[in-house]
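Milestone M4 deliverable, item 7.
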Amino acid sequence: MKYLLQEPLLRADGLQDEQWQAINDGFDRLRRAVDANDRPLIVGSAKELVEGVARVILVSYDGRIVPDQDSYDKVLGAAHKVIEHAISLSIPRNHPLRQIPESAKKMAGQLRELRNSFGTGHGRSTVHEITDEVIEASVHASLLWVRWALARLHTALQGALAPLIRDLGNGIFYSGDLASRLASANIPALDHPDQAAWGWQWASGRRAKLGTCGSKASRPSP
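Output delivered:
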């Protein structure tokens, strides 16, 4: 089991130091639990690592601070949607490139039940046997989604709307960088409010850059 944790996690470009520290803190806790063979802590830490990465994805992508009371499934689903949206619209829902990540998310989603039954975070009146199978399922499910998610986050942050709109206003891009970031943003796949916000911000940025005068455009309602 220790070999699964020997390879460090991938840091996506654009992650702030404090965000990366939060992820590494969860990863190190899981690693220490495995080293100590603390089985309840392994199960609990596997679930916490997924939730921590999911929360970092949301705050790094669009500044979304998720309330502590939001459910694990809700946080995981929202983060998965952020990193999954960059997949090309031409790929159908039943394509393996969509189904494989969805299966990884479903595996990670089961960690809540495993933590409730076997992991830390709950006082118990009885001690449950935690088998090798429980430990292996917990660690594999956690790392499978986490490693995929952090790799996808690199692409998602390239196309994150807020920094993209800001940089468009500045008008400074290296060769090929703008095309790559627009492709990563995958604007047709965004929800309608995000598409409307993108159009409004783009038009506003162009008017400001060109010095256009005249009536102000109305910002779209969310």
